[in-house]
Design brief:
heterodimer; A: mainly alpha; MetI-like fold; about 75% helix; B: alpha/beta; D-Maltodextrin-Binding Protein, domain 2; 2 domains; two-stranded antiparallel sheet; 18 helices; about 45% helix
Chain lengths: ~280, ~425
């Protein structure tokens, strides 16, 4: 009897999980489906699920009109570059807050997080002027810097949470064995926090890949990543949904595939320390 | 030693030579629509004729483009050398000193061939600050078969009363045919473009001569009552979320009896590839109420050179090419006359081939010529602009008012409440901005 109830609950939970999963995936599925429709079919009412004439024309047109590879490479460089830079800064910062806290550490952490509460547009003009002065407008270096700064509070917070789970005794033992601070962080702390660092890294890459405020406002032609590539397919006068969907599919494809391959690592890292 | 110095001198000469022939790259910011994409495609003709100039394109959605070019121009960022802007921005930006005067468009550039209404909209104190790439007004596009079935005949210059009668007569909701499709989606360039132009024909205006908002006047109430009642009776379901593209889709799939919108749609609805009703479309002027103003607007997507550009000479050269008569010939030659950017040049409307191929051409020209941005309303106003008020605050306040009017159409608020809210919001913002003392 008890077993039957348990099984029923399991089935119910599975069904619920599948339903939620499908709901979350539906917009992506619809975007991919629309990318294979003609513009007329894309806006047909009632919407067509599979009974439309399939075409790859949108992909051909998008590829012929835009330099996809340039935008793709910009996205890769900006997201990976900003993630590496953020980790270089965040690992020592999180270490000091986790293992050598002061009475102001909590305040500093909260202050860092509070910077994320400011609407980005509030600092657009000052940052734009600084970028103009320093010649960083429409450069990948400029975007790497700005995205590093934007995501740094989250990276430090995540790493701080993971580091707090590591017993300080292990680090002390390393110190007693004569490890310098640098060696302690590189050879003792970092290997133990690999799941946490990896998931922070993956999350930061995803955040940077999808970032669409700074990447749209600080770039023009040379450093524009895939967000700008998508934005170029929306039209004020004329049908565009099918081509926009093709561009979106091409833009989200790489990060979606990366997410699938690394989901185990991502979930492991995100739930690290969640259950004691 | 002699050999080394020769090599050294040659190297220096070569590097100077390479510098002198190095192409100058100009960056062009543009919106994604058919005519602009075609320009991008054909621009190799320009670079072949001007090997010293290279082109870089930044194509963006209209609102993102507006945000980016405004930031760039206000900070003199210099990211763009040519910008695509509309008739709303030109007078405001020119007065701020943000645009170069276009006085170097080429010796053969025929400036007098530009349609006077469009040229006036892009000039300040008689100086041209943007060159029109394509121009548009608004007009009635209607189904000839449905109006015939309703036993009516569309005049060239209909009244709103006739439009309402025809819309109700053409409606067949059981077969998903709606008499009229109009913009309902909130936004200063969406429902407020249509409603501001319509209000002009009902004798309404945004402000009196002292910048006092006029939404509490009977003419606005009449306009909004008429619009809401008409769409409730003869409009498609969910009209409050329909903009240009949604209505275009409805019309092309045979679900609208009439559609009053941009003249540029004339080529879309008669395009046999995309439109199922291509051979059953007629055109008429935007309606009036007999007060002397029609409900048609005036807009031109235009090319301008920002004051922050360090390559203004090359940029003007490109603008001169893209907005010239020769460019229209090039498009006609490569893509056919129907695809030529409309609404900018008088000579296009004297071209018999174009007139024969584009059934919407005559009405487009008449609509553009009948719009008067400097005298848009029945009663006098202190502003310029037909479907907008050319002040920097307009985008914000018109979007807020547009949300109120869209809510009235959706039935979530009443017409009276929407107008009262519009009056109080606009009064507050205009007082804050210093227009009302």
């Amino acid at each position: 009897m008890q077993q039957a109830t348990l099984n029923q609950r399991k089935i119910l939970t599975s069904v619920l999980a599948w339903l939620i999963g499908l709901m979350i995936f539906f917009p992506i599925f619809w975007t991919i489906l629309t990318s294979f429709k003609t513009e007329a079919d894309a806006i047909a009412s009632p919407p067509m699920l599979f009974n439309f004439s399939w075409t790859t024309e949108n992909y051909t047109e998008v590829l012929s009109r835009s330099n996809y590879f340039l935008h793709f490479m910009n996205s890769v460089i900006i997201s990976v570059g900003s993630t590496i830079l953020a980790l270089i800064i965040a690992i020592p910062a999180a270490w000091s807050m986790a293992f050598s806290p002061t009475k102001r550490t909590k305040d500093v952490l909260l202050w860092m997080l509070s910077t994320k509460m400011l609407p980005p547009v509030g600092v657009l003009i000052p940052i734009y002027l600084l970028f103009r002065e320093w010649g960083l407008l429409d450069t990948r270096t400029g975007l790497v810097i700005v995205l590093t700064l934007m995501n740094l509070p989250i990276v430090i917070w995540m790493l701080y949470t993971y580091f707090k789970e590591i017993p300080v005794d292990i680090l002390e033992a390393a110190r007693m064995d004569g490890a310098s601070l640098k060696n302690e962080i590189i050879y003792v702390l970092t290997p133990m926090a690999v799941p946490g660092i990896a998931s922070t890294m993956l999350l930061n890459v995803i955040l940077a890949w999808n970032e669409a405020f700074w990447t749209l406002n600080l770039t023009a032609a040379k450093a524009a990543p895939l967000t700008a590539f998508i934005a170029s397919y929306s039209s004020p006068e004329g049908l565009f949904y099918a081509k926009l969907s093709a561009a979106s599919t091409m833009a989200i494809g790489p990060i979606l595939i990366m997410g699938w391959f690394s989901q185990k690592q991502l979930v492991r890292g995100l739930t690290f320390g969640a259950v004691k | 030693m002699k050999f080394i110095s020769r090599v050294f001198v040659s190297a220096i000469t070569l590097s100077f030579l390479s510098l002198s022939v190095a192409a100058e790259t100009i960056t062009i910011a543009t919106v994604n629509n058919g005519d602009m994409i075609r320009m991008q495609k054909l621009s190799s003709e320009f670079t072949v004729a001007n090997p010293d100039i290279e082109l870089e394109w930044v194509t963006l959605e209209e609102n993102i483009l507006r945000q980016r070019v405004t930031t760039d121009i206000a900070t003199k960022g210099g990211q763009y050398d040519v910008m695509t802007i509309g008739t709303y921005e030109v007078p405001i930006w020119a007065n701020q000193g943000w645009l170069y005067e276009l006085d170097n468009l080429g010796e053969d550039y025929d400036i007098d061939d530009i349609l006077p209404a469009i040229r006036d909209g892009l000039s300040v104190d008689g100086k041209l600050f943007a060159a029109p790439f394509y121009g548009e007004s608004s007009m009635v596009m209607y189904r000839t078969d449905l109006i015939e079935k309703a036993g009516l005949e569309m005049p060239d210059a209909p009244t709103w009363e006739f439009i309402a009668e025809a819309a109700r007569a053409m409606t067949d909701k059981d077969n998903e045919v709606y008499g009229i499709c109009l913009r309902g989606k909130a936004g200063w360039g969406e429902n407020m473009a249509f409603l501001t132009a319509t209000a002009n024909s009902f004798g309404a205006r945004w402000f009196d001569e002292n910048w006092t908002p006029q939404f509490d006047q009977p003419a606005w109430k009449e306009t909004l009552d008429f619009y809401v009642d008409l769409l409730n009776d003869a409009g498609p379901p969910g009209a409050s979320s329909n903009g240009f593209n949604e209505n275009l889709a409805l019309f092309q799939t045979g679900k609208c009896g009439m559609w009053i919108d941009a003249t540029v749609a004339g080529s879309f609805v008669t395009n046999e590839t995309d439109s199922t009703v291509a051979d059953k479309v007629g055109f008429a002027l935007a309606p009036d109420t007999g007060l002397g103003k029609r409900g048609n607007w005036l807009w031109a997507w235009s090319l301008a050179v920002p004051a922050g550009s360090a390559k203004a000479v090359a940029a003007q050269k490109f603008v001169g090419w893209a907005t010239s008569k020769e460019y229209l010939d090039l498009v006609a030659d490569q893509e056919g006359w129907k695809n030529v950017p409309p609404g900018t040049r008088l000579s296009l409307y004297e071209n018999e081939t174009y007139l024969a191929e584009a059934s919407f051409a005559k009405m487009t020209l008449e609509s553009i010529q009948s719009a008067d941005p400097t005298n848009p309303t029945v009663d006098p106003v202190p502003y310029v602009g037909v479907q907008f008020v050319a002040i920097p605050e307009f985008q914000g306040i018109a979007t807020t008012v547009g949300q109120q009017f869209s809510a009235a159409l959706a039935g979530t608020t009443s017409v009276d409440d929407a107008l009262a809210n519009a009056q109080s919001t606009v009064t507050r913002e205009m007082t804050r901005a210093g227009y009302i003392k």
